[in-house]
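Lecture notes, part 5. Sequence design as translation. It can be helpful to think of inverse folding as translation between two languages: the language of shapes and the language of residues. The source text, in structure tokens, appears below.
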């Protein structure tokens, strides 16, 4: 029998990619199956790679999950552990939200690895310490910041080589941290950017604490969470710098409101810092918390002046360097095998460059970014 040397063999669909896209859309297997008109067991088989989807089913998957077919033909993403998302899951955040946050950051991180073929990433200059206070002081020293409040805090974190991935507004989720990559060499923070300015800064500082203090992040304890908070408090409100502000006048809610404008942290964080530094007693702290509760400020604090909006910049800058500015979303999506809507979501949540001017690429290859899997060390 003559062999057909030119017979076309279609690449198999990667079931892990189907699961990744489904979790990104916060769909159960049953909901996805209903949407494309198949049984739930079929979706389970596809995700376990025990069955391949028919052409019609694959078309349904691409439409419902809003990803191009090439996305599902790719090999699996590089390892992206859940990191401090393990803590979020234990603190009552739903498993579907945790999975959605993880899938979003995982795909964005893979984009960065591909972009790193064409552009240089910021070198990692992150301190490492087992002590929260010392770790915070070392971090401020590396940041080369003056005493007092930290200006442009999100950008200062990115300049340490930490990749901040903006997350969509997910209920119950604020941020998470993970050391990712083949050798766990990339510090990553996932951050919900649609929050109050002071909450964003404290969340980012807390997760930075996990990166500095807890390199493995393979399991979470309340002690680790407490250590991360102590790191964040010392980083944003150094004891030697803020003590005089807390002691100079009677610490009531009006004084807390004034200090909030200076230090760019919440009134609640300032009150807790005053208690921890023994500026006020536990009883005074409880009284301040009750006052804020009566005014409804425990869930949403008031603002008395326009607040500076801080958004991560590094991921968008990588895209600008790799593809030029203004960024053509359709080209980015095609080269990186993701959906245009995913690229647009990322861009909308990042800070744009002043003037959106074009920048020079690191190398002369303008034919696109090398597809994932062709670079040594990231396969």
């Amino acid at each position: 029998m003559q062999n057909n040397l030119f017979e076309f063999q279609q690449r198999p669909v990667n079931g892990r990619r189907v699961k990744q896209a489904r979790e990104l859309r916060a769909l159960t297997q049953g909901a996805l199956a209903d949407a494309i008109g198949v049984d739930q067991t079929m979706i389970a088989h596809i995700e376990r790679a025990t069955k391949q989807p028919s052409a019609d089913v694959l078309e349904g998957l691409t439409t419902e999950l809003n990803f191009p077919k090439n996305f599902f033909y790719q090999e699996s993403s590089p390892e992206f552990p859940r990191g401090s998302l393990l803590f979020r899951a234990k603190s009552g955040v739903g498993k579907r939200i945790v999975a959605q946050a993880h899938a979003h950051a995982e795909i964005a991180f893979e984009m960065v690895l591909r972009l790193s073929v064409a552009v240089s990433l910021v070198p990692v200059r992150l301190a490492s310490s087992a002590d929260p206070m010392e770790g915070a002081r070392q971090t401020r020293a590396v940041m080369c910041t003056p005493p007092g409040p930290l200006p442009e805090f999100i950008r200062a974190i990115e300049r340490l080589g930490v990749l901040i991935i903006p997350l969509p507004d997910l209920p119950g989720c604020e941020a998470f941290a993970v050391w990712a990559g083949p050798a766990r060499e990339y510090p990553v923070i996932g951050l919900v950017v649609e929050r109050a300015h002071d909450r964003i800064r404290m969340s980012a500082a807390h997760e930075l604490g996990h990166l500095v203090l807890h390199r493995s992040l393979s399991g979470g304890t309340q002690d680790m969470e407490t250590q991360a908070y102590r790191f964040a408090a010392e980083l944003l409100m150094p004891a030697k710098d803020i003590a005089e502000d807390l002691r100079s006048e009677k610490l009531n809610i009006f004084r807390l409101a004034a200090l909030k404008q200076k230090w760019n942290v919440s009134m609640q964080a300032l009150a807790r810092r005053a208690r921890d530094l023994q500026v006020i007693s536990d009883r005074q702290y409880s009284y301040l918390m009750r006052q804020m509760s009566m005014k409804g400020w425990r869930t949403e604090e008031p603002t008395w002046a326009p607040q500076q909006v801080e958004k991560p910049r590094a991921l968008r800058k990588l895209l600008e360097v790799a593809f030029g500015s203004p960024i053509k979303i359709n080209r980015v999506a095609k080269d990186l095998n993701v959906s245009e809507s995913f690229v647009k979501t990322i861009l909308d949540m990042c800070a744009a460059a002043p003037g959106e001017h074009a920048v020079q690429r690191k190398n002369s290859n303008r034919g696109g970014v090398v597809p994932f899997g062709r670079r040594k060390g990231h396969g």
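The translated text above is only one of many valid answers, since several sequences can fold into similar shapes. The radius of gyration is 23 Å.
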